[in-house]
Amino acid sequence: MAVLNPDAYDRPGAPAPSGPAPARRRVLLVSRDEEVDSLLARRRVAAHLTELDPSWTGEADGEGSTPPDAALVCDDEPAARRLLARGVPVVHLCSGTPSRAAAPPDGAVYRVHRPRWLPGPWPALPKGARPTGVLAPARLTRDRTRRGSLLLLSVWGVPAQEADGFASGLLRRLAVEALRRTGGCDVVCDTRPATIRDALGGLDGVRVHRAADADVDALHAGAEVFLASPVLGAITLAQARRAPLVLLPPLGRVQRDLAERVSRSVPLPVATDPPAPALWEPRDAGAADPWAALDTASDDLRGAQRVARTLRQLALAPL
């Protein structure tokens, strides 16, 4: 089979292609939209697939439909197995805390979101699996004029009683303080949005978004202050933009594991006392940069590009 070369006609002086333009290769992008890490991973890879024809719905996964040329599946193992059974090449990406990485479906190309700076120890990866490095957003700059606060809350996999108690207690007090200190507050949650809205009801100026319906990376670019659950997508977002980050207290075993690992490498404050001034003061040019503690030479920000490249190769010349 001839390998297609999408750059063949990009060289100076190369002849223009004759005949009709080739059909754009179709790729299906699947994530667990109730988990913010999975959702952010899918979106960050998708930003580097502009030359392909992506679909974000599950329609192309159904029986009787024309299968896509390749698929990216973030975490959803049943979807990966269904696609593989139909002969679709699959890149299976484990998006969240690397300690959760398990054996991928047979036949999938396996990638794990694992920044090199994040301390282990980690379970051994299956044969052929590779860590991605940081899945950074495509846009690394922040708005010059920033206002308000962004609170990114993940309760994926968190016991309901623990999540609800946090929402009606500390989260509400933080939202009240965010309004007072920064003039506005966007709260983004991945699951239990109705419960979060009820817990924050009556606070004028607080906007509650479901992560699947909000552009988290864009909201961060325009926010003055960023508070987030200790989840990998939020931490790498702040790292990539060298932006201040205040961690919300970890909820559930997985968040506690990641928060402990991060604390060994990066000195990030934790929002346990809402009135504390240090939580609401954006870092100025003379303040210490917590991300300076990382050895940037050992870990770049091109994880999303690498995953996109692998997906592109499968779509153009399936294995």
From TrEMBL:
Q: Which gene encodes it?
A: blsF
Identify the InterPro entries for this entry.
CGA_synth-rel
Q: What superkingdom heads the lineage? A: Bacteria
Q: Which organism is it from?
A: Streptomyces formicae
The annotated region (Disordered) lies at 1-22
Query: In its UniProt entry, what is this protein called?
Result: CGA synthase-related protein
